[in-house]
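Final report, Chapter 2: Outcomes

The project's central promise was a pipeline that accepts a single protein chain and returns its three-dimensional structure in a standardized token representation, suitable for archiving and comparison. That pipeline is now operational. To close this chapter, we reproduce one record exactly as it appears in the project archive, with the input sequence first and the structure output second.
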Amino acid sequence: MADKSEILQEAFSKHQKGQLTDARDLYLKILEKDSQNAQVWDLLGVLYYQAKDYEQAEICIKKAIEFSPRIYYLENLARLYLEKEDYPKAKSLYEDLAKYNPTYENWFNLAMSYKALHLWQEAKEAYHKSLEINPKGYESYFNLAYLALNDNDPNLAAECYKKALEIKPDDWESVYFLSLVYMQLKNYEKGLELFESRLCRQSAIVSQEKIYPNIMKSRPEWKGENLSGKTLFTYYEAGFGDMLMLYRYVPILTKMCKKLIIKPQKELAKLFRENSYGAEIIENYNYKKEIDFDYHIPFLSIPYILGYKGEEIFVHHNDSYLAANPETISYYKENFCKNNKFKIGIKWQGNTHYDLERVIKVEDFFKLFEIPNTQFYSFQTFEGSEKLEQIKSKYDVIDLGATFENFSDTAGAIENMDLIISNDSSLVHLAGAMKKNCFVLLPYIYNWRWHTDLTKCDWYDSVKIFRQKEFGKWNTVFDEVKIELNKLIIL
């Protein structure tokens, strides 16, 4: 019969091979006869951690510490707390570990705990401590860049990303985020070049190759060649807001080539057809439709290939570059907007896959609803629209979001508004493209496209920017909005 050491050796071997169930059973077999074996309790805890059974992992690792309070076991417990996002406990443990076992990993993980708890200064100090131990810790530079952006210091953020890339030149994330920092600084020459590293660009190309395999592989990507007498095919990537913001280049492209074919998301197709500038707008997933072209390009690569420098990139038009369908305008006017009040469309939530900080609680809007002679309209669609019930129980807010089938409907409703007030979402870009008055409400750490001078909006003349003064605090933002709103209503 195998002794305890042989069983442990077999269990550990199976554990290393990923045979977790068999390894678990052998660990438990050892503990039946040796219930105070700290090493086995710790290994069992690590196994449960790997299986994402965090409750059992915590029980087992704490058992190991109870029988033998080794630093290694404490580090495993701290890593577990960090993984399960129990940041206060992770912080407490890592503060002790960094003091008694000041390794790069312990200082770095302490910094990560501070960062998650929004203890920005403590996080910076811990990252710098980690770099004193390991100057090649590119992850620390990467996270220091985030904290620099949190301090509204994109120049420092750029230096941190450059340091990370000196250590790890092939780190695409540092390249990508450095591109965003350059664009926030309005250095679009460098920013757009690095922005070509983005993953959504590659996935957009691959998705087109799946739909039109023979055509895509036999046609080159447009790199700036003369388009006279040629057909250019461009297709969506990323979000609705990006497509709406960069649609400003469509009138330019249609003049450069014989034919422009655009494939947007299906929700944008109708609006773009109504504002085609001579381009052909094709529906998403229209596999059966034959298309022919000379060059193709992902939509977000257009400004880079056009080669605009400085302020040229904003391409200000004499008028709006997107307009609503007159019939749709009339529909919303007759059915929802036949009143003499100041009409305000609102939205509090966009795609929560990105930047949860952009989400606003509906309660934050309540102080605006009490302003006399106003009529508010909800433009919220899909995720977040369920929050409207919290408003309706107290205030008369008309739900337009439920009537929207696509962005053409949204545009028709916007045209009937005196003002749009929204979080950073596609609604802002559509209102801006239509030259409709709009207040965009930004979180403390905001998207690159709003740049560093928030007193004006470079992309849209009609958009006014409001930003949080403290992380996560919207009260002061809405106080400022209320003052500005009252000025508009008086005028």
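Archive annotation: DSSP finds 24 helices and ten strands in the chain.
This record, like all others produced under the grant, will remain available to the consortium after the project formally closes.
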